[in-house]
């Protein structure tokens, strides 16, 4: 299907040039990295930018490294890069697990993590994981750079804290010091490529503390502080799980859409929370399914 | 077909081959089109090159489900550089349609579904065409739409086709003018009231089936060229080149174009499933070609158009009332189907008709009433889809049967065995049932899924359920649907077969080659079968209804036999050997009475045989064959359906499943599926197994994941694979067991009957019944998604 809308295309050779274009065109400029969202929007006339800024030449946006106790993910890093990285698989297995559920192999080969949070759809698979790792989004404009906590990043469906003259340069994920294990549980209509109808990421720590975050169960991906407070300090007994299952319902506000009814999302949120906690806990003690297994419900 | 009798009652003295003597038929020879497709040599319509002069079209589509067109202003689009022509309905005032002429090329005064074509912009480039289409200004006056077939029957429902009484249609349709009923098939047999009176148990319920899309990998594509001499050539991705030619002429006849002037060339197609039968978007290609004479023009559907503006499988609301005796015998069946047939029913009405003749399923039902109503709605046109109405009614029927058996306290498999139809039983429309192996099919499937053995999942969160259902289907075709074949020998004794049955992945080419090979002893590797070109290949009605192995196969067999006859005549004439003593073996002519006689085919099939006087006798050997089911008749009593013989034969079978279901999430996994089908004779067993596995999986897709969702304005909400889910490799069942049953069809080539569609139709009730077996909840509307299952289980707990 051809793209009928007309726009300028530029591939800046360095960061300065790119930032200048964004400061000049602001909302009328769109960054192109993987293009898995943008190109579809162009074809369907949903996006009508004056200029498309191809950022794939910007070396500074590459790189997937562990710097001290922080994983640095450049803005051009794709989900396939994450999946193929031993570093991610061994040190951030939860991120690895969630990456496997993103779209399909072909899309993952192009789609970037930064693009996923810039598109900021409520169902972004990377978001709950970034939230439980307390990720930081690094952004830059001519006027300077800043770091935005992932918790302040999402402003609503398809809305972020990114200003019109800024671009995302990368993400930082601090590695928790305490022993931990996680699970990303995703509700799909089938095993194949699907947008999450609900997603819950859990990090469980050896000291009985927990982090819980969701996607597709509200207007924006978010942590669940009340549920975390209830769980913290407790072993996962049946009564605690039962209370947590009910409490998380007060922290989410799923909608009904073509993919799922509200009722089913609520029903599944309870089950996904319980199962994600159980699996994370099993993994913490060296048992449970391998990462990437049994997490599509 | 004298061979039919020989197959069903082989005489020991006969020299004609019995089933056991077959050399090629019954073996799994590799596909003859395999390498061509694997190596990328096979061409599909969009692959064809037409040079830089090729024009492209974009469609102006209706945003409304029901509206009057007040005006169309094409002037801005016409001024856009690169736009060659803007074409509207003003240029094409003739209606067309396969079974009922209720469609225009472009909507003329009324649009009847969202996405309907109102105009087309032809341009030098696809982008320019799209930009031009956006510049066409259409003013509408909105009319009240109706989307639900049951509501469309209400007294004050808007009438979608006020001119219905003037529409031409086949004689076996019964439209009700001034209503939305385009066709009402009534089938009545026995005494229904008496049947219900005799019953110990009567159960009634309603089942719902939504619309479905074919989702062929290759979208529809057509290129038309109307040259300066008045010859129209159409390259189409089609299951029905000859039917397309016929329908094109319906529209183009007023311009002086006749059948001989139209040439339809069908390349390989990337999946059909009924969606490329008849004529849908191709009519636009034909109309545009004649509008830009001298230049080829291409219309290529995008994926969204593929969903909303081709045929869709129709939805149905089915009310079933069944009466049974305590011993399980069905005494009465009252089956009422309201079909959501869409805005135009030129093809879809025959789906409704087919279901109306056969909704008893493969059971003997003495007292029967079927009402199958084809109802216009303001949704996209319904049409053929693998299964042709049978999947739809079978969901309700086979769900209902399991429930009735359960209520009786009877094993549902025993119930089915008790009522299963036998050869000679009277069909719903009065004719006798053909030989069939349904009993054997049930028994084999029963064994395969260990029916009666309750299984437990290793995972306590999951339950396991089983189900077994039966199915049947007949080709739905006009009584005079014909097939024909040409067979030509070449200098080296190789053969070209020309047929217009389409290779749509089912393996038609391979099977036709096997049939000719069997008769003429020429190996399959020396036989080519060509895709259709209506100028070159002889007539075939359509590649639909799972009838081409049977119909086209009979034609090829008859062509091969004619060629063989010519060979024997020639040898008799030149060598003075009695024809009846001659036979073929390993590409040579042999003689029973003269073991030393041997004449290679390659030595004479083109250049003849040299006689003693040095002259040559004979010449190029060709065979032609035709087939038409001369016993068929579509005319029965309109009030009862009795008296005709509309269906040529039924293929029967049975399928079973072992299903694991998560008690909380509703997630389902098919641990094992088995399907046994009586194909009469598996000419190529591997291809039959391919049909069984592929069909069953397509069926599971419709019951587990797919359905078309329409918004309040009638717009299709999921015209994409993000939200119209067809399963991936990850969603396959663990095991699928294909089982071939062979109870010969007397009039089929080597006893074969159709098998292609049948393999998908039992899938939906299998899942619904297995879910109930596992968790005790009954889902009465398709699809049976995990969401529905989980919420039903949760509701049952409360």
Please describe the topology of this protein.
The complex is a heterodimer of chains A (297) and B (798).
Chain A: E1 8-10, H1 15-25, E2 29-32, H2 38-43, E3 51-54, E4 64-67, E5 70-74, H3 79-84, H4 86-91, H5 93-100, H6 105-108, H7 113-119, H8 126-132, E6 136-141, E7 144-149, E8 154-156, E9 159-160, E10 167-174, E11 180-187, E12 198-205, E13 210-215, E14 222-223, H9 225-231, H10 238-248, H11 262-284
Helix pairs in contact in A: 9-10, 10-11
Chain B: H1 3-8, H2 34-38, E1 55-61, E2 67-73, H3 75-79, E3 83-88, E4 110-111, E5 117-123, H4 126-135, E6 137-142, E7 181-189, H5 192-198, E8 201-209, E9 221-226, E10 232-236, H6 241-252, E11 262-266, H7 282-291, E12 297-300, H8 303-308, E13 315-324, E14 330-342, H9 348-358, E15 368-376, H10 390-408, H11 412-419, H12 438-448, E16 462-473, E17 483-489, E18 495-499, H13 508-520, E19 527-530, H14 548-575, E20 582-585, E21 588-591, E22 598-600, E23 609-610, E24 616-617, E25 622-627, E26 651-662, E27 668-678, H15 685-704, E28 736-741, H16 763-775, H17 786-797
Parallel strand pairs in B: 1-12, 10-11, 14-15, 18-19, 27-28
Antiparallel strand pairs in B: 1-5, 2-4, 2-6, 3-5, 7-15, 8-13, 9-10, 9-12, 13-14, 16-26, 17-18, 17-25, 20-21, 21-22, 23-24, 26-27
Helix pairs in contact in B: 6-7, 10-11, 10-16, 13-14, 15-16
Structural account:
- The complex is a heterodimer of chains A (297) and B (798).
- With 297 residues, chain A is α+β, with helices and mostly antiparallel strands.
- Chain A folds into three domains: 8-54, 2-Layer Sandwich (Uridine Diphospho-n-acetylenolpyruvylglucosamine Reductase, domain 2); 59-174, Uridine Diphospho-n-acetylenolpyruvylglucosamine Reductase, domain 3 (2-Layer Sandwich), CATH 3.30.465; 180-284, 2-Layer Sandwich (Enolase-like, domain 1).
- Chain A is built from eleven helices and 14 strands.
- Chain A has helices at 15-25, 38-43, 79-84, 86-91, 93-100, 105-108, 113-119, 126-132, 225-231, 238-248, 262-284, and strands at 8-10, 29-32, 51-54, 64-67, 70-74, 136-141, 144-149, 154-156, 159-160, 167-174, 180-187, 198-205, 210-215, 222-223.
- In chain A, strand 12 (198-205) and strand 13 form a beta hairpin.
- In chain A, helix 9 packs antiparallel against helix 10 and helix 10 (238-248) crosses helix 11 (262-284).
- Chain A is globular.
- The model of chain A has no long low-confidence stretch (mean pLDDT 97).
- By secondary structure, chain B is α+β, with helices and mostly antiparallel strands.
- Chain B folds into three domains: 3-30 and 481-627, Aldehyde Oxidoreductase, domain 4 (2-Layer Sandwich), CATH 3.30.365.10; 46-143 and 225-293, Aldehyde Oxidoreductase, domain 3, CATH 3.90.1170.50; 315-477 and 634-797, Aldehyde Oxidoreductase, domain 4.
- In chain B, 25% of the residues lie in helices and 23% in strands.
- Chain B contains 17 helices and 28 strands.
- In chain B, the strands form seven sheets. Chain B has a seven-stranded mixed beta sheet with strand order 3-5-1-12-9-10-11. In chain B, strands 7-15-14-13-8 form a five-stranded mixed beta sheet, with helices on both faces.
- The interface between A and B is medium-sized, with 21 and 30 residues.
């Amino acid at each position: 299907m051809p793209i009928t809308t007309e726009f300028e295309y530029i591939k800046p050779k360095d960061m300065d040039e790119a930032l200048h274009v964004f400061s000049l065109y602001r909302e009328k400029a769109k960054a192109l990295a993987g293009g898995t969202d943008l190109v579809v929007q162009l074809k369907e006339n949903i996006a009508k930018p004056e200029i498309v800024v191809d950022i794939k030449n910007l070396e500074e946006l590459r790189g997937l490294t562990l710097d001290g106790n922080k994983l640095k993910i450049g803005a051009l890093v794709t989900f396939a890069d994450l999946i193929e990285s031993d570093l991610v698989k061994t040190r951030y297995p939860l991120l690895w697990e969630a990456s496997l559920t993103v779209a399909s192999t072909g899309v993952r080969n192009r789609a970037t993590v930064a693009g996923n949070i810039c598109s900021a759809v409520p169902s972004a698979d990377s978001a709950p994981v970034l939230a439980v790792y307390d990720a930081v989004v690094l952004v830059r404009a001519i006027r300077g750079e800043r770091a935005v906590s992932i918790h302040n990043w999402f402003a609503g469906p398809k809305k972020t804290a990114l200003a019109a003259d800024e671009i995302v340069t990368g993400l930082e994920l601090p590695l928790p010091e305490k022993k931990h294990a996680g699970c990303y549980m995703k509700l799909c209509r089938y095993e194949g490529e699907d947008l999450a109808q609900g997603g819950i990421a859990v990090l469980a720590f050896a000291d009985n503390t927990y982090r819980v975050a969701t996607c597709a169960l509200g207007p924006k991906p978010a942590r669940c502080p009340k549920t975390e407070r209830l769980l913290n300090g407790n072993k996962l007994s049946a009564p605690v799980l039962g209370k947590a299952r009910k409490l998380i319902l007060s922290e989410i506000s799923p909608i009904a859409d073509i993919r799922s009814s509200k009722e089913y999302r609520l029903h599944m949120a309870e089950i996904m929370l319980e199962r994600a906690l159980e699996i994370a806990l099993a993994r913490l003690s060296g048992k449970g399914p391998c990462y990437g297994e049994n997490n599509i419900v | 077909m004298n061979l039919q009798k020989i197959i069903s009652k082989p005489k020991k003295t006969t020299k004609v081959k019995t089933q056991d003597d077959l050399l090629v038929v019954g073996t799994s020879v590799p596909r003859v089109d395999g390498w061509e497709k694997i190596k990328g040599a096979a061409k599909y319509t969009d692959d064809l090159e037409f040079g830089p002069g090729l024009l492209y079209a974009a469609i102006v589509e209706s945003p409304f489900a029901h509206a009057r067109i007040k005006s169309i202003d094409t002037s801005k689009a016409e001024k856009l550089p690169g736009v060659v022509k803007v074409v509207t309905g003003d240029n094409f005032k003739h209606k067309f349609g396969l079974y009922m002429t209720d469609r225009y090329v472009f909507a003329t005064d009324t649009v009847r579904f969202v996405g309907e074509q109102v105009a087309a912009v032809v341009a030098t480039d696809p982008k320019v065409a799209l930009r031009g289409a956006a510049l066409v200004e259409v003013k509408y006056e909105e009319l009240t739409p109706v989307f639900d077939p049951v509501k469309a029957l209400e007294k004050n429902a808007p009438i979608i086709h006020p001119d219905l009484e003037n529409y031409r249609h086949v004689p076996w349709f019964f439209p009700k003018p001034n209503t939305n009923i385009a066709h009402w098939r009534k089938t009545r047999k026995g005494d229904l009231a008496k049947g219900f009176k005799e019953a110990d148990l009567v159960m009634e319920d309603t089942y719902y089936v939504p619309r479905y899309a074919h989702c062929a990998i290759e979208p529809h594509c057509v290129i038309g060229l109307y040259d300066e001499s008045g010859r129209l050539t159409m390259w189409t991705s089609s299951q029905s080149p000859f039917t397309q030619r016929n329908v094109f002429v319906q529209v183009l006849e007023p311009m002086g174009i006749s059948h001989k002037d139209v040439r339809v060339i069908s390349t390989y197609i990337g999946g059909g499933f009924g969606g490329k039968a008849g004529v849908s978007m191709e009519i636009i290609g034909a109309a545009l070609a004649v509008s830009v004479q001298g230049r080829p023009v291409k219309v290529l559907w995008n994926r969204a158009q593929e969903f909303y503006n081709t045929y869709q499988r129709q939805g149905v609301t089915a009310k079933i009332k069944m009466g049974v005796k305590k011993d399980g015998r069905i005494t009465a069946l009252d089956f009422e189907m309201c079909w959501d047939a869409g805005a135009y029913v030129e093809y879809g009405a025959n789906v409704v008709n087919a279901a109306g003749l056969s909704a008893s399923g493969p059971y003997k039902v003495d007292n029967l009433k079927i009402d199958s109503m084809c109802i216009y709605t303001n949704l996209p046109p319904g049409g053929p889809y693998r299964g042709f109405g049978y999947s739809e009614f079978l969901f309700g029927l086979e769900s209902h049967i399991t429930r009735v058996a359960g209520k009786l306290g009877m094993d549902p498999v025993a119930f089915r065995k008790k009522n299963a139809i036998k050869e000679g039983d009277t069909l719903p429309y009065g004719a006798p049932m053909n030989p069939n192996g349904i009993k054997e099919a049930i028994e084999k499937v029963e064994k395969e899924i260990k029916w009666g053995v309750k299984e437990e999942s290793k995972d306590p969160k999951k339950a396991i359920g089983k189900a077994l259902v039966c199915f049947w289907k007949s080709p739905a075709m006009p009584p005079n649907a014909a097939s024909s074949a040409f067979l030509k020998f070449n200098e080296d004794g190789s053969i070209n077969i020309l047929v217009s049955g389409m290779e749509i992945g089912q393996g038609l080419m391979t099977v036709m080659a096997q049939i000719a090979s069997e008769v003429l002893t020429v190996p399959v590797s020396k036989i080519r079968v060509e895709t259709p070109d209506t100028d070159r290949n002889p007539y075939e009605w359509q590649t639909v209804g799972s009838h081409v192995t049977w119909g086209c196969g009979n034609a090829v067999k008859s062509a091969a036999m004619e060629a063989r006859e010519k060979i024997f005549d020639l040898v008799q004439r030149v060598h003075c050997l009695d024809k009846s003593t001659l036979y073929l073996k390993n590409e040579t002519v042999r003689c029973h009475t003269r073991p030393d006689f041997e004449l290679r085919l390659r030595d004479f099939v083109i250049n003849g045989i040299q006689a003693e006087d040095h002259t040559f006798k004979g010449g190029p050997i060709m065979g032609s064959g035709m087939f038409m089911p001369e016993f068929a008749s579509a005319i029965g009593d309109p009030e009862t359906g009795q008296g005709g013989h509309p269906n040529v034969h039924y293929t029967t079978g049975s399928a079973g499943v072992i299903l694991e279901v998560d008690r909380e999430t509703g997630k389902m996994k098919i641990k094992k599926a088995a399907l046994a089908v009586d194909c009469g004779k598996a000419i190529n067993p591997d291809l039959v197994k391919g049909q069984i596995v592929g069909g069953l999986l397509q069926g599971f897709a419709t019951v587990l994941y797919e359905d078309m969702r329409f918004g309040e304005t009638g717009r299709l909400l999921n015209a994409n694979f993000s939200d119209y889910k067809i399963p991936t490799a990850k969603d396959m069942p663990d095991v699928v067991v294909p089982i071939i049953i062979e109870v010969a069809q007397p009039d089929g080539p080597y006893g074969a009957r159709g098998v292609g569609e049948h393999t998908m139709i039992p899938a939906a009730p299998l899942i619904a019944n297995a879910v109930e077996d596992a968790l005790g909840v009954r889902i009465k509307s398709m699809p049976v998604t995990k969401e529905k299952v989980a919420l039903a289980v949760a509701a049952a707990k409360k």
